[in-house]
Input
Amino acid sequence: MKSSFVFSLTAGLTLMAAQLPSQNVRPMLSPVPFWQETANPSDVADGVYYDLPHMEYVASYKGAGGDTGPTVLRFGSHRFTEPDITSGVTATSDGFLYTYTVSNDVSARQPIRAISLTVDPGSPTRVAHPSWSGKQHPSIKTGLSPSASIDWTPATADQAIAPGGSGAGFTVESTSSPGFVTVTFKGDSQSPEYDESAAATLPDPIRQQLSRVFANSSDLKTTLTIGPRFPRGASQAEVARNFLSGIQVLIRRGKLDAASPFTQSAVGVLSLQAGAGDAAVLSAADFPFAQAKPGLETTIANALKANLNQ
Output
């Protein structure tokens, strides 16, 4: 298949949000003020706070008219995992097989109890793991592109990925070809969970604040991996923007070496195509697949090759 990786480098970076799901490129410790213990709880303004030592969000509010003492409720945070994910992709007779191994660094303060992968919604998938339950959820809106999510949860609490542990065997079979997708990790909190029943008891301003907190990815750990991203017939320009954006994100996060021969050559080739306007001037033979080092570089190279060989 002839490659048509033609695109504007500047446009590719500008459209990163459209090509990749939203990313936490800047660490965010707390989206709300920090909780400070006080001798007089009534001095605390109504609102939502973050108690860092206890890894909890605190909702504090007074009764009607302020005549009663404050109500203080606590809900667990889920961002104290330290995850890493390795992925592999192989072509099958009718699509691709994606495999994942997830680890949780020994420095983590929480086990990993849920994993969510954002994927292309337009093609059938089959999700599997020896002991975790996996399923695909319907299409959602992410950036400018629709997407679906594949969620894995352990059958029992003791199967969560503990600090210092790892879990293999996460697999997805899909007709969608590989690209960069978002993967999100949820920690196992021992504190009360914020859910619909808890929300029903809260004043509207407090409920709205908490809803924003738990809808925001700052409560979770998020990174990029290779997964089912493109339906059959996706334009090579769209594929190119996704890969260039993903490479740039991983360079900034220290996951890829900007000075490595593969990274430099790949970005250079894509930049060359950017200067070619609408003309398709390069083929798969022009990409530096052989320069990829084992690990992440090889995974990216194989994913690019899979798109070019369709």
